[in-house]
Each structure stands twice: as structure tokens, then as C-alpha cells.
């Protein structure tokens, strides 16, 4: 399923697409909110792996404005709960992810992204 924790590491891998291929942009996204168990230690340990601007921009694109534009210096429970919601509870069920560079579309159906490329697109 496409959650923003996964989306935050996905880039286009089409042949010749090596610049400006992250983050993939959602198109016609249908989202569902699915409650997940809150684990603050996991979130604290995962923070350094996030591309913050990409995460915030994508969350806002999907209608969630709970994250600050800049990562705060003080990591409190309220921040972690908002981060938890954005990373783990927003599920994109239908739509597509579009490469901002080459325009390649990765369809999402039943929460599963199709990241496979046609033979002529592999490089």
C-alpha cells in the first residue's frame, strides 16, 4: 500500500530519468485514513531518513497541513503524533504517481503501486 513513509523514498527509475525524478507527484489520489499503533521510538529513529521538504509538500498536496515547513528542533509528542499520522495513517488507495521529470505514470490500484516498467523503459 502507498503510505507516505514509502512514497518518501520512491523515485522514477525509467530509462534516462536520473534528475528531478523525486518526489513522485500524486494525481487523482483517493486516500483512506487507517489507524496504526503509535510508536514514538520508531519515529524518532526514522526522522533522519526522511526527505523533509518532499514529505511536507506531499502531505499538503494530499490535504494534510499538520507538519511544519521546517523540521522542529524540539521533538515533542504532538509533533510525533502528527508525523505518525502523515507517515503511517494516510493511505493512497487509487490514482497515480507521476515523475516530475519525464512524466512517467505509476498507477496505484487497491493501494498497490505498479512500479514495473515496460521493456523499452528499462535502462
UniProtKB/TrEMBL annotation:
What InterPro entries does this protein's entry cite?
Answer: Trm112 (IPR039127), Trm112-like (IPR005651)
Q: Where is the signal peptide?
A: none
Q: What is this protein called?
A: Trm112p-domain-containing protein
Which family does the record claim for this protein? Belongs to the TRM112 family.
User: What is the organism lineage in this UniProt record?
Assistant: Eukaryota, Fungi, Dikarya, Basidiomycota, Agaricomycotina
